[in-house]
Amino acid sequence: MSDTSNSKLAVSKCKVCGKLFVPPAWICSQCGSTEFEETHLSNVGTIRTYTTIRVPPLGFESQCPYDIAIVEMPEGIHIPARLSSQGQEPKIGGKASFLKKEGEAYWFKLLN
Question: What is the pTM of this model?
Answer without folding.
Answer: 0.85
